[in-house]
Amino acid sequence: MFTNNEIEQQVAEFLLQIKAIKLQPNNPFTWASGWKSPIYCDNRVTLSHPTIRTYIRQQLVAAIQDKFGSVGCIAGVATAGIPQGALVAQELGLPFIYVRSKPKEHGTGSMIEGDAATTSGKRVVVIEDLLSTGKSSLQAVEALRAAGYDVAGLAAIFTYGFDIADENFKQANCPYVTLSNYNALIKYAEEHQFINEKDVNLLRQWRENPSTWGEMAAS
């Protein structure tokens, strides 16, 4: 049985190796929010690597069983949480549904896709690929609760570990678990020469003040 630390480090290694996570502290990315960021994470890349995809699926299943116990349904958050959630549901032999970011503008106008007649009311775990502030994930949680689901919590591959995310999940009374996190990633990246000491300092500064880091880095 792997320890949590071993899982965190292994997932961090995989994400760096296949460039699902890219670190560019000296040439930052711009997020949709407008934040400047030295890190970019796209966990959909893992789907193209069967060995890594399998490992992540197995560890998500183990984390769900350990953290939430018995559940009756798995829900993926559109779009990146859909394939991960479907893989987990298949492994557990459970029904799968997914939650849109907003209701369909045609047909039934549904926000939740799947067989509501057989899944509504079930104890469900939500699957996400990545947590930043948690806003979009919790929007899905609230949609499920409004539709009559008993949300046990959420499981994700990676979190940036922002304090605002912890607060948002606490306010929503929604526990969550992730396979790896920002601190574990930086530790692995430094120990295996993906980044140098100067980069580590920049990355840690960003983690402390992500919304204003770009302004500080430019000054």
From TrEMBL:
Q: Which reaction does it catalyse?
A: orotidine 5'-phosphate + diphosphate = orotate + 5-phospho-alpha-D-ribose 1-diphosphate
GO BP annotations of the record are: 'de novo' UMP biosynthetic process; pyrimidine nucleobase biosynthetic process
* UniProt family annotation: Belongs to the purine/pyrimidine phosphoribosyltransferase family. PyrE subfamily.
- Subunit notes for this chain? Homodimer.
Gene Ontology terms, MF aspect: magnesium ion binding; orotate phosphoribosyltransferase activity
Record EC number = 2.4.2.10
The alphabetical list of record keywords is: Glycosyltransferase, Magnesium, Pyrimidine biosynthesis, Transferase
Q: Which domain of life is it from?
A: Bacteria
Q: What is the lineage of its organism?
A: Bacteria, Pseudomonadati, Bacteroidota, Sphingobacteriia, Sphingobacteriales
Question: Which InterPro entries does the record match to this protein?
Answer: OPRT, Or_phspho_trans_dom, PRTase-like, PRTase_dom
Phosphoribosyltransferase domain mapped to chain residues? 65-161
NCBIfam families the record matches: pyrE (TIGR00336)
Q: Sorted alphabetically, which Gene3D superfamilies does this protein's record hold?
A: 3.40.50.2020
Function recorded in the entry = Catalyzes the transfer of a ribosyl phosphate group from 5-phosphoribose 1-diphosphate to orotate, leading to the formation of orotidine monophosphate (OMP).
* Pathway per the UniProt entry: Pyrimidine metabolism; UMP biosynthesis via de novo pathway; UMP from orotate: step 1/2
State the top-level EC class: transferase
HAMAP family annotated for this entry? PyrE
Protein name (Swiss-Prot/TrEMBL) = Orotate phosphoribosyltransferase
* Binding annotation for 5-phospho-alpha-D-ribose 1-diphosphate: 100, 104, 106, 128-136
Q: Which residues hold orotate?
A: 132
- The question of whether Glycosyltransferase is a record keyword is answered with yes
Its required cofactor(s), as named, are: Mg(2+)
